[in-house]
Amino acid sequence: MTTDANGPQPGIAAAHEEIRRRYPFDDTRDADDERRGFLGTAAERLIRAEDGRVVWDLDAYGFLTGQCPPTVNPSLWRQSGLVAGDGLFEVVPGVYQVRGFDLSNMTLIEGERGVFVVDPLISAETAAAALALYREHRGDRPVTGVLYTHSHVDHFGGVKGVLSRAEADAGVPVVAPAGFLEHAVSENVYAGTAMARRAAYMYGAALPKGPRGQIGAGLGPTTSTGTVTLIPPTLEVTRTGQTETIDGIRFVFQLTPGTEAPSELNLHLPDHAALCTAENATHTLHNLLTLRGAQVRDPHAWAGYLTETVQLFGDASDVVFASHHWPVWGRPRVLEFLTRQRDLYAYLHDQTLRLLNQGLTGPEIAERLELPPALERSWHTHGYYGSVSHNTKAVYQRYMGWFDGNPAHLWQHPPEAAAERYVEFMGGADEVLRRARQSFEEGDLRWVVQVVDHVLFADPENAGARELQADALEQLGYGSENGTWRNFFLTGALELRRGAVGTPVVATAPDLMNALTPAQLFDSLAIRVDGPRAWDADLTVRWVPADAEPVTMRLRNGVLTYFSGPSPEAADPQVEIALGEAELRAILLGTADPAALAAEGRVRVTGDPGVLTELMGLLDEPDPDFAIVTP
């Protein structure tokens, strides 16, 4: 068998050669565009948090030069080299981007008095470093406004690196699309822990950076690990065609909800003939269902909004830039870029529906569907972040759900129980592994990981199964054009060889938790109730905030419900707690002890305080490091 020090199998090497033959590597326009307008970069290459730890290393991807090594898909090597370039770039006079300082780009637009910041990265530390680089080359201009193009953390998390809450309170506008705040924080309430665990796989957070490890994520290099912050918006964009003038800069907005994010917008700068497409049109096929987990996105709406983008701004845009990757210049190329991105999402949507209406299931469609040659010849349609395979399955899921209609799939055994039966039917673990090793040597890697997965879920300590599965996942990683697939495969191999490596991704940040509404806070408790342990409990707590209506919270039948005002189901509360909003938040977030607050006179408790203690004791703590490649 191979080890993690060996190179790719002959089949992987042959596939790489086919890619070199088939794809237009002689088209260097992207490389030229990526370097265009370069003004300089930071002399200090490590960006650190206050405690001294490194949150971003600008030299981490310095190995992405020269010829592609055999352990990397040549197309992904090309893309990773392009997204790793760092520095300050002029898009057009007055519009600049800092790229390579995080997963995303930070755009800076010069106004009459200062500079307006678009999408201040993930971490306050990287955003501050990006702003410092801009000021080094363009002068110490004050920040006169901030825009979040959408509700994902890589577009707002670093805001306090460029603007303080006091400055926002004093009138510096923070602009965002309608619904931004709700969507920005809601993921952290409902599935934040699970998403963070899977995001560690998706971005290869625990992998060493290098030709045998993490080389990027397709959309950008990786995610920074600094301080995530949030300043709530002070100005909402509520309609397409809305115009605003801030610091003398004219903005025209297009709302695009339900595309790459539930709350998103494009913006046009008419005085610069420049269009920002946020994350709706970038140099990759994006995700319709991200591998970290999310709700399925709507490719039909996505394509429709890009058609509208062309109608609104196509004749008035000499450059298009986005919150990732590099710009495209020249009106004919801008139109080609936008329409092909539109056609990409429309084709996946329409063809998936055509095939599902012929009776094909998601996996069958994923195997059959290929992009038209004209789209495949455009580098920006390639699946470096999303993929044709998992996006077509997402479209199927959006319309048809998890069930493919085959009654044999309606009530299957869960993985561990099924694994034990499969292994027994196939003659035992030794026989499965013997035949799987033969399949490995024949290059049938997908089959190897499918059958050895059963051995691992029947016996996770089987050393031979762990070794073979790690080897096969590693080979699949070496062959992947998609950056996140590569990271998933290689992280799975790493954990099989070394054990769980943890989740170096924080699911929550104080600013995000402080932005939760009271309803979201109560929801965050409800989804942590251990139902079976709470079956027989009947507990009622009434919260009496100082400046809001009382809220009755009841745990019964293993379900935590809450409501304001009278209700025919309301029971007399067993305990009533009068307190301020800060104290309510602290108790619900688990950062304060109600008894200690009562002793300090910050809350007033009437009734049995043990009821709240009993209720809180029926809550589970989420597991940030749950197993993925083993049961």
User: What's the assembly state of these chains?
Assistant: single chain
Strand content bin = 15-25%
Strand runs, count: 21
Largest sheet: 8 strands, mixed
Globular, elongated, flat, extended or rod-shaped: what is the shape? globular
User: Which regions contain 5 or more consecutive residues with pLDDT less than 50?
Assistant: none
Which strand order do you get reading across the main beta sheet?
1-4-5-6-7-8-9-10
As a percent range, the share of helical residues equals 25-40%
Q: By helix and strand content, what is the structural category?
A: alpha+beta
Mean of residue pLDDT values: 95
How many helices does DSSP assign? 22
Rg, Å, rounded: 26 Å
The span between the termini is 24 Å
Commentary on this structure:
There is one protein chain. By secondary structure, the chain is an alpha+beta fold. An eight-stranded mixed β-sheet has the order 1-4-5-6-7-8-9-10, with helices on one face. A six-stranded mixed β-sheet has the order 11-12-13-14-15-16. Helix 10 runs antiparallel to helix 12 (388-400). The two termini are 24 Å apart.
What would the keywords be for this entry?
about 40% helix, six-stranded mixed β-sheet, about 625 residues, globular, alpha+beta, single chain, eight-stranded mixed β-sheet
What's the layout of helices and strands?
Layout lengths: L9 H13 L6 H7 L2 E3 L5 E3 L5 E4 L16 H10 L3 E6 L2 E5 L6 E5 L4 E4 L5 H15 L4 E5 L17 H5 L4 E4 L2 H11 L1 H11 L32 E3 L5 E4 L2 E7 L9 E5 L4 E3 L22 H15 L5 E3 L6 E2 L1 H26 L5 H7 L4 H4 L11 H13 L14 H11 L3 H13 L3 H14 L4 H17 L3 H16 L11 H5 L3 H9 L11 E8 L5 E6 L2 E6 L10 E5 L1 H8 L5 H6 L3 E5 L2 H7 L15
Parallel strand pairs: 7-8, 8-9, 9-10, 14-15, 17-20
Antiparallel strand pairs: 1-4, 2-3, 4-5, 5-6, 6-7, 11-12, 12-13, 13-14, 15-16, 17-18, 18-19, 20-21
Helix pairs in contact: 1-16, 8-9, 9-12, 10-12, 13-15, 14-15, 14-16, 15-16, 16-17
